[in-house]
Design goal:
Blueprint: E1 2-6, H1 10-21, E2 27-32, H2 36-45, E3 50-52, H3 55-60, E4 66-69, H4 76-86, E5 90-93, H5 100-113, E6 117-120, H6 127-137, E7 144-152, H7 164-167, H8 171-187, E8 193-201, E9 212-219, E10 224-230, E11 238-245, E12 249-253, E13 262-264, E14 281-283, H9 289-292, H10 295-307, H11 316-335, E15 339-340, E16 359-360, E17 365-372, E18 378-384, E19 390-392
Parallel strand pairs: 1-2, 1-4, 2-3, 4-5, 5-6, 7-10
Antiparallel strand pairs: 7-11, 8-9, 8-15, 9-10, 11-12, 13-14, 16-17, 17-18, 18-19
Helix pairs in contact: 4-5, 5-11, 8-11
The protein binds nicotinamide-adenine-dinucleotide (NAD).
Length: about 400
């Protein structure tokens, strides 16, 4: 497959590293950038035969089979509309839109044009995420009750992220979009997100947007997806997820403290890992960043899906739902109340059972808790099915 990358910045280079640095059958054939010098340099670095400063030309070029959007958030809609017009498969980085309205316009444009539309949510493709999801789907931790996803770092690397208008918000739209989609996958994408309660504040930087936030997303089956985001966390990039189920627990740490620790006096000036604040002292490097951040699995899924006329794991519809949840989070941060998630076109299930009777112990009792105490005594706490009384054995 011949690919055009729109953008030559931070994420465009990560994508090119994934597609070019490893031997893959997919070829980056075109790159678009505003600045001719940077675009030429990008083309040279990754051996890309065509480059241009004309967005439409980079999309409609006859040798381009699919387009990757790696542009600032305020340019995603324009780029998606150009792909729809040219009828080219499109893969868009996160967040899909700056808000639900923009994301819905992108979804509708792609569906109207009948083009493939994949959502590049890399953190839903990390090896740890994929293994966690398959364990959950196999029933290893029972029914998911509560998920917690955290992304925090010392703040983004380009000016436009800090501009509320261009980015669509602050840390919530930038980092929370990952956390929300991670939790949605664990709870079940079929389950409707109903309402959001969110605290957000600007704690450190002279900006209009929030640089810290915590939110709770309540799903129709009663599950809670918690997100924690920060642009003022010191010490690197903290990417952690937790899933709490009725039969088990999953904890993952995707970046810091992954089992690779290094000490350096700082000689050599080496790159350590994304958002690392230091290259001296005890360090937490990441072995293969593009792999550990999910980019390899993500592009494999995307290009396989295009070739086989299938849906990828992450679609524009998912991107739209994430934006709708984030809209409710911003509304809640303003009103300080639970705010509804407004979804124009819900495609998941509408039959959800919120009431869970509990585990049956025998024909007369539900089991509440079983525990062996330090004394060796075994305690069994039960609920009488008929009277509702709590009893012990
Ligand atoms: N994990 C991830 O998936 C991940 C990580 C980082 C960024 N992103 C996303 O990727 C997108 C780009 O972010 P980035 O970190 O690469 O930003 P960046 O600032 O490093 O790069 C942005 C690119 O867009 C170009 N650009 C900026 N304004 C433009 C304009 N008006 N017209 C044309 N080109 C313009 C810049 O020249 C640059 O090539 C954003 O949507 C961001 O949220 C995703």
């Amino acid at each position: 497959m011949n690919i055009s990358i729109l953008g030559t910045g931070f994420i465009a280079r990560f994508y090119a590293e994934t597609l070019v640095a490893q031997r893959r059958k997919d070829v980056v054939n075109m790159v678009y950038g505003r600045s001719p010098d940077k675009t030429k340099k990008f083309a040279e670095d990754y051996n890309v035969p065509n480059y241009t400063s004309n967005l439409k030309e980079s999309i409609s070029h006859p040798d381009v089979d699919a387009v990757i959007i790696a542009l600032p958030n305020n340019m995603h809609l324009e780029a998606v509309l150009a792909c729809a017009e040219a009828k080219k498969p499109v893969l868009c980085t996160k967040p899909l839109g700056r808000n639900g309205k923009e994301a819905l316009a992108m979804l509708q444009a792609a569906e109207k044009a009948g083009i493939f539309a994949g959502y590049l949510e890399d953190l839903c493709y990390t090896p740890k995420f994929l293994k966690s999801l398959s364990s959950i789907n196999n029933g290893a931790i029972g029914r998911v009750i509560w998920t917690k996803s955290r992304e925090s770092h010392p703040g983004p690397h380009s000016d436009w992220f800090w501009d509320k208008e261009k980015a669509g918000g602050g840390a919530i739209i930038d980092l929370g979009c990952h956390c929300v989609e991670i939790s949605r996958n664990f709870i079940g994408k079929d389950i409707r997100p109903v309402e959001v309660m969110c605290w957000a504040d600007t704690c450190m930087h002279p900006i209009d947007a929030e640089d810290n936030a915590v939110g709770l997303v309540r799903y129709e089956n009663g599950a809670i997806g918690q997100f924690e985001v920060s642009w003022s966390f010191r010490g690197g990039m903290d990417l952690r997820d937790e899933v709490m189920g009725t039969e088990g627990t999953i904890w993952t740490n995707n970046f810091l403290r992954t089992g690779f620790e290094m000490f350096s006096t700082g000689s050599g000036d080496a790159y350590v890992a994304e958002k690392s604040e230091s290259n001296s002292g005890w360090l937490f490097p990441v072995g293969d960043e593009v792999h550990e951040l999910g980019y390899n699995h993500m592009f494999t899924d995307m290009f396989d899906a295009i070739e086989n006329s299938k849906q990828p794991l992450e679609t524009f519809y998912d991107g739209y739902i994430v934006n709708a949840i984030i809209d409710a989070a911003y509304q809640s941060a303003r009103t300080k109340k639970w705010e509804p998630v407004i979804i124009e076109d819900w495609r998941g299930t509408t039959e959800v059972n919120q009431h869970h009777a509990g585990t049956s112990y025998d024909e007369n009792y539900y089991l509440i808790k079983e525990e062996i105490l330090p004394s060796g005594e075994k305690k069994i706490i039960l609920k009488n099915k008929k009277t509702g009384a709590i009893e012990k054995r």
